[in-house]
Amino acid sequence: MPPLAVLGKHQSRWNYITVEDVLEVAGKFDQHRIPLDFIWLDLEHTNQKRYFTWDPDHFPREGVRRMLDELNRTQRKLVTIIDPHLFAGDADYAVAARMKGQGFLVKRPGNSSSPAQDFEGFCWPGPSNYPDFCDPRMRREWAKLFDFSSYPGWPAEIYTWNDMNEPSVFDGPEISLPRDTLHRCHEDEYSIEHREVHNLYGFYVHEASTQ
Q1: Where is the Glycoside hydrolase family 31 TIM barrel domain (predicted)?
Q2: For the chain, what is the largest distance between any 2 Cα atoms, rounded to a whole number of angstroms?
Q3: Nearest 5°: phi and psi at 141?
């Protein structure tokens, strides 16, 4: 069952880009005596749209701790966004490197002269890879990213917004993964086309996030 608190009053806008923005918005709700239970943070809280990170300038660790303490004092919760596309242009981005290194990304089909390669599409961060949520091994690895150590103060204070898990591919033929993109479901080889599992992709994102 979902937590009872999620039936409360929620506030979400794209442009909360600093700790001070969040605290000011919460304060305005108090000032005008408007009920508020949750504040949602969009992409700008991350370090250059790398999910499972905080922007080091606008959401520094000590600032996040101060923000969470204030929200907790007023019995409010925070929700942060997680999208399944991972920026492919930064070898130091640990989440993407972890998925790529373990072979947990969907593949672009190959041919007799060229093997299948990791699929790369364009989304908010720029060139992006897409985790293969049909692979149960990948889902177990994704679930580990929600360990309490991922964010300062994660326990009981931060909730997750799973977003754009259609999955969104801005330069895709249908703004999603091409139908012939390959998945590795319960087999050792990439043999399942995306057309067969499109509706399962988002479901498995949620399943992995709750594990």
Answers
A1: 1-209
A2: 67
A3: -70, -40
Conformation bin of residue 72: beta by default, left when phi > 0, alpha when psi is -120 to 50: alpha
- The answer as to CATH 3.20.20.80 being correct for domain 4-210 is yes
With 0-12 / 13-18 / 19 or more C-beta atoms within 10 angstroms meaning exposed / middle / buried, residue 143 is middle
What are the per-10-residue average pLDDT scores of the chain (211 residues)?
86 93 97 97 96 94 92 94 96 95 94 85 98 96 83 66 96 96 87 95 95 81
Structure tokens at 160: 């997750």
Q: Measure the CA–CA gap between 201 and 133, rounded to whole angstroms.
A: 6
Which structure tokens are listed for 34? 């408007």
Structure tokens at 7: 């039936």
Q: Phi/psi zone of residue 65: left (φ > 0), alpha (ψ -120 to 50 degrees), beta? A: alpha
CA 178 and chain centroid, separation: 21
Sequence-ordered list of residues with C-beta below 8 angstroms from that of 28, at least 6 positions apart, any chain: none
pTM to 2 decimal places:
0.91
User: And the tokens for 45?
Assistant: 């809280």
Query: Do 66 and 20 form a contact (C-beta atoms < 8 A)?
Result: no
- SS3 for 53-104 is CCCCCCCCHHHHHHHHHHHHHCCCEEEEEECCCEECCCCCCHHHHHHHHCCC
CA neighbor of 128 nearest in space, from 160, 162, 172: 172
Residue 3: its pLDDT value, please? 79
